[in-house]
Amino acid sequence: MDRRLGIIADQAGSSGTATVDGAGSTWTNSSDFYVGRSGSGTLTIRNGGAVSNVYGFIGDFSGATGAVTVDGAGSTWTNGGDLYVGYTGSGTLTIRNGGAVSNFNGYIGVDPGSTGAVTVDGAGSTWSNGGHLYVGYTGGGTIAIHNGGSVSASTVSIARLAGSTGALNIGAAAGQTATAPGTLNTASVDFGNGTGQIVFNHTAANYIFAPAITSSGAGTGTVRVEAGTTILTATNTYTGATTIDGGTLSVNGSIANSAVTVNAGGALGGNGTIGNTTVNGGTLAPGNSIGLLTVNGNLSFTAASTYMVEVSLAHADRVNVTGTATLSGATVNASFAAGSHVAKLYTIVNAGGGISGTFGSVVNSNLPLGFKPSLSYDGNNAYLDLALVFVAPPNTGLNGNQTAVANALVNYFNRNGGIPLVYGGLTAPGLTQASGPVATVVQPTMVQAMTQFMTTVTDLSAVGRGFDVPGATAFAAEGAAMNAYAAVRNPGGSERDAFGMITKAAPHAPTFEALWRVWASAFGGGQTTDGNAATGSSTSTSRIYGVAAGADYWLSRATVVGFALAGGGTNFSVAAGGSGRSDVFEAGSFMKHTAGSAYVSVAAAYGWHDVTTDRAVTSSGIDQLRARFTADTFSGRLEGGDRFVTPWFGGLGLTPYAAAQVTNTHLSRLCRNRRLRRQHLCFVLSREERDRAANRTRIAQQQILRGERCTADDARPRRLGT
């Protein structure tokens, strides 16, 4: 249909209805189009129908009513000029299910006493204003944008002139059930000289409202948040109040000129700037995770309010207040980032005008039981304090080792002001695991390996290491005297005669010739050291094995020097969890001198160890930690003794002796790494290079009894802490 002027319900008291239905159905007007000019008119454009005109009027004259519905994708109403919804009368415009309306300027509620309402509902539904959009020009106007609908204009004015009212609803209107929001594409939304309001009552969890909200007139323009999370990103200069009755308002821009009230069920956050703020039973949660919120004015809480604080290693949520902060016993709820570090002290409120009152209780989430939060204050700040306190299991208590580890962690936390969060969750077994008990058996095992090697090197009683030369039977007695560990009985007269009879020539003093002896020997052993429940040490076991080869050089019948090389390995374990092994290379030299029945020997040795340890940690999941490092041992030994024969058992030979051995271990830098899981690094112990010396003294007796030698040794393995 093609007409110059389109009118539905032209006269007062008349009514009219028109439907443009289906693709290809059109109503083209070369001039203006009125829906309810003086009477009651209804227009429906659906299923691809199209209407076009110059100016559009819905509810033109006083007392007239008009209603237009543009429904469905492809359905359009095109206005070449302006569109008036409620010019002097009452008008409604509904755009839904993908319908589209376009015009130059849009007016809702134009003249005094008029009312207009526009709803843009559903994805693909659009109202495109090429110029300005006025919501309540002189009359009353309302626009609701929800469920994905879209409205665009160069600027939007709400309650333009004195006496007007206007409301912009993102989602549902105030007091209604929240719906999904739509989108307003414009540079700014301005409150004029009337009474205007923006309502955010939607279901979105992250709705960004980008237009700047301004106040150019002397009227009242307010913002109300009822549901959903709304994020304001612009520098907003409106001066009316902001009220949060539900949902969350996150201010990442500024509403510095607006007084904010957060009622029960509402929350305020963001990292921008807000005006004077009253938290009236609601929640203040600075930041968008962790951040800083600035109050341009004063901040006050009521006792029923909550202050939410998120915490990480270096920072916590914080509010900076240019004026005063009145705390009034509000609850502080601290939420700690999982798997992160924590610091000992966080500033959560700073007020340039001073702090009044205190917060009430402090509760926390994601904070291990070992950390105890508290609050402290000075004249301008409120602080969140953390103390690290390890609680012993009921009716037991921490053992000595666990206490030592706990104290070390507490001291570290207090001294450095921070620690990984996971340490606060250590139980008594966790403290044992954190101590790394397998490390305590590494050095004793190295010392034992060195002692075994030194004993092997200096033991001349082994077969083939004596001075007696094969075939020199005439000097067998002398050779026996040199190598014995106890005094050798001198032969009687008849025995001397017997030796003399079998000697082919008269005995004479032999000429000494220096002799070399090459030898090889295996060595090894094992030990078990019982743990102590009170101290927290664990039973440890170690095994040592090796093969040594060397050469002795006899400088005289009384003096011998030599050297030796050895290779072998060790393995060790602790009952608390953990095991290890090492490959060992050792080299050493010695000298021994005999004077009559006394002797003295000195030896020095070096050992190289390639060490691997493994242990499981279960305090934060299941982790298998492996350490790989090298170590050096340096050892020196001095021994002296004197042999004599007792009258017992037909002449028992005893050799009392004293020995001193010093072994120094040098550990290279090591680091334990996970093998099974790789999350936040915890229980990754590192050890800087260090030296330790193990001094061992020995007072013992060597006995010759029925051809067997026994050693009584009072030196026991000692734990060397790492």
Q: Your description of this structure?
A:
- The chain has five helices and 61 strands.
- It is mainly beta and 722 residues long.
- It has a 15-stranded parallel beta sheet with strand order 3-6-9-12-15-18-21-24-27-29-32-35-38-41-45, with no helix packed on it. Strands 50, 51, 52, 53, 54, 55, 56, 57, 58, 59, 60 and 61 form a twelve-stranded antiparallel beta sheet that branches. A nine-stranded parallel beta sheet has the order 2-5-8-11-14-17-20-23-26, with no helix packed on it.
- The chain starts with a strand and ends in an 11-residue tail after the last strand.
- Residues 469-507, 671-692 and 696-722 have low confidence and may be disordered.
- Helix 1 packs across helix 2.
- The radius of gyration is 48 Å and the shape is elongated.
Task: Give a brief description.
The protein has five helices and 61 strands. It is mainly beta.
